[in-house]
Each structure stands twice: as structure tokens, then as C-alpha cells.
Amino acid sequence: MANTDLTLELEVTWAKGEVAQAEYELGSDSFITTSSTATSSPSTPEKKSLEFVEDEKQHAELPLKRGSRLTRYLFHNFLSSYRKTFAIIFPTNLVTLIAMISTSDGYPAASSVADAASANLMVALLFRQENFVNLVYEIFTCVPHSMPLFVRRKLAKVFHYGGCHSGCGVAATVWYILYTAVATKELIEKRSADATASLITAYILVLMFFTILAAAHPRFRVKYHDHFEAMHRYAGWIALTTFWVHTFLNAEASRGPTPLGLYLVQSPNFWFLSVSTGCTVLSWSRLRQREVFPEVLSDHATRLHFKYKSMKPFYGLKISDKPLLKWHAFATIPEEDGKGFSIVVSNAGDFTNKIILEPPKKLWVRGYPLHGLLHTSRLFKRIVVVATGSGIGPCLSLMFAGVTPCRVLWSTPHPEVTYGENVMNSVLKTDPNAIIWNTRTQGRPDMVALTHQLYSEFDAEAVFIISNPKLTRKVVYGMQTRNIAAYGAIFDS
């Protein structure tokens, strides 16, 4: 029922495939003055001691983090935009419940509670429907650069829209539990065959909702992502089907002399459910098998070219070789000649490894291309783009657009050998002075210090990072605690 998100795939796949590279985040926030000398490579004990002393001297070059450790944790970790969005959903629903109780003699009507449940479900699914999400992105990024920077910083957090999806999903579950309790009480007071059948479907729905929520738990989602995706999808489909059966059974039991069709169209629940179903049907109605033209870059990366349509910058696409089981989202890169687009796939798991070892001739695609994190870069006059490994893939779309001047920091093992001359040329065309850090020959860089260096030199307004989850959190935290706007892919956007 819910689509797999582009940023989620970036995090999950890179977290699996680039753990070794991610380890360099454990270094200190020491300032690196040049990209050729400052590393944190392993060395002898004596040399480690010397490097530690140098780090202490250089650390003053970075501005101190603002606030105390507690306030930094609260504002930059715990109270994330995603959680704030999630949290807003519940007071809104609580006000609705109080209004229901106050207008119905202290006891909410079952039909009103059902309407609230289906309304939350509709909103949850709208925030997984590609066209709706793209519209939200367009609205939030349409402001001019003359708008105050603090406003643009807030608008750029639109990619946390996943908080609306999960918040409304949980709220729908709570509402439906309440509805089932109310319906059970009414059935006990007044037994009927139609009401009994309707209540059975209600309990099936509660079970499906709990299955979806359990599978969406962050730890389960990362560790068993394929299982999460299957449970989320099939439990969602069963829930939608059961919801329709329940709606007709309940209408039949409640309509009295009113014709069934007229009773349904007068019910808000019917229209909420219609929109919810439309979100799912629309995405899957776009399921197509497309021809693929592989370009082998190395034994670690492959570039897949698609010719069936042109693609504008800042979009992502879901692909699969087993469309009913699992999907993988990748950022698309428009072709220079305007005919088609490509995606960069690096070795980061079973699916990507198979793509590299056995380049496909055809793959399934689904849904409409979806905006992602980097679309919000249009809100700023100048930015710094940070990438590690295959994180350069999504950044190539931004570079192709050429909308926002940027400096580039890319850290990866043997960049030209792994990703090819074309990728290198695209990076250098965008930023002739890009810092391209070869971790095999230069060791592990201090990404926070280098990012801050580029930010200061370029007088940028924001930092965007595409990397593994741990390093993304480290760089974003390192920037935000120094009052620098920084944005990176989150677990569920």
C-alpha cells in the first residue's frame, strides 16, 4: 500500500554496501586545511599520538557547537522535523475527538469515528502517491530567493513529509481501534446478522493495521527490509479490500429505507476510501517492463540507461526484477542529448550485485517519477554538495540541472576507476575546484571539517549530503549545531 521511498533506498543500500567507508565518520571534528595532507589513516602508535596533538591544535579552526549537549540533542536529534510533523498529527486528532464527544452527548458515534479513521488513512496514502508528493514539493520550493533565508531553510525540510504518512497511519489505527470498540458495544446492545458480519471485517482491519505498524518499526525495517516491504504492501492491499467489504456491509446494515448507492455517496467514509484506493491503483496502473541499456563502469558500479522517455532533473524512479516482491528506488540522471535518462548502481547488496554481475536487458518500473531531497536545493543561492561513494549518483541530476551554483566534496575509493570518466567530468564541469577525495590513496577525511571549509569559502547558504545514514547524521549534526542549514536523506522521507 505504501511505496518504497527514494531516500530510504539510498540509506538502506548504502548502509549495507559501504559500511567500511562509513567508518571514517568516527574521527574528530578537526579542521583539514588541504585535501592532500590531512587524513585519519591508521598508523603507528607514535604517529597516532602526533596526529592527535595536531587535531587538538586544528580543532579551534572549527566554530564551537552552539548550546549544551542536552539542548543539541533535543533540537538536532530528538526533535527532528520528521518527529515534529508526526507529533502534530495527534493533537489535531485529539481536538477532533473532543469535538465529536462534545457534540454527541459524551459518546462519539461509530460512523463519525469511522470517518476519522478513513480520513487519516487517506492522508497517509496521499503522502505515498507520487503526483501528490511532487505537488507538495513544487509548492514548497516555488518561493523566490528574495524570501528571507530562515523561511527558505524551513521550507527545505519538506522532504520530512514521511512524518505525515506515518503519523496519519498510526492515527488511523488508533481511530479504528476506537471504532471497533464502539461497534462492538453497539452489537452487544443490539444484535443483528449484518452488524455481526460488519464487525468481523472491522477486526480483520485492526489486525492488518497492526501488521503494517509492526513491520514499519525502524529496526525491523532496516534489518528485514524485503519482509517489511512485502508485509506493508500485502497487508495494505488486504486492508483496502476489507475496508470496502466493511463499508458495504455497514451501509447495508445502517441505510434503512435509503437506497444503498445514495447512502454510500452521502457518506464521507466512501469518498475518503475512494481516494485511498485511487492512490494505490494509480501507482500500480503505471507498472511497465522497460528495455535497459547497461554501461559497465567497473566491477563495483554500473550505469543503466533507459530510452523510453526523457527525464527532467531532480526525479527518482523505482525499478525491480520481481515486481510483486520488492522495489528499489534510484535517482535519475537526464541524458546530455535529452533522449532518455540513466541511473548509477553500485555494489551495495544482493539486488545491486546481481545488476552489476548480470546486467539486465529489461526491468520493471512503477509509478510516476518522484521528487527527492535535492529538489529543495533550488531554494538556495549557493550550496555545498557532499557525497560518498555512489551517493554521487543523485547529485549528478542536480549538476545536470545547473540551477544552483555549488561546490562539491566527493569521497570514494578510486573515483575515476570505479565510476568512469563521464561521471568525473560531470563533477568537474559543475565545480572545477571540486574536492574529490580518493580514500584508497589519501586515507579517510574529516568530512565535517572539509564541509565547513567549503561552506565558508563559498559563502554558501546550505549543505546537502548524500551518504550512508551514520555519516549523513554526523555531517548534518556538525553543521546544524554551528547554525548552518544542512540536509541529508532520512530513514523515511
Structure in words:
With 493 residues, this protein is of the alpha/beta class. It contains 20 helices and 13 strands. The protein is globular, with a radius of gyration of 25 Å. The two termini are 16 Å apart.
Sequence-ordered SSE layout with sheet pairings:
Layout lengths: L5 H12 L1 H4 L22 H14 L10 H10 L2 H22 L7 H17 L3 H11 L8 H7 L6 H28 L3 H23 L2 H6 L1 H30 L5 H6 L2 H17 L3 E4 L1 E4 L4 E6 L8 E6 L7 E4 L1 E2 L6 E6 L3 H8 L4 E10 L11 E6 L3 H10 L4 E7 L2 H16 L4 E4 H4 L4 H12 L3 E5 L2 H12 L5 E3 L5
Parallel strand pairs: 9-10, 9-12, 10-11, 12-13
Antiparallel strand pairs: 1-8, 2-3, 3-7, 4-5, 4-8, 6-7
Question: What descriptors fit this protein?
Answer:
single chain; 493 residues; alpha/beta; four-stranded antiparallel sheet; 20 helices
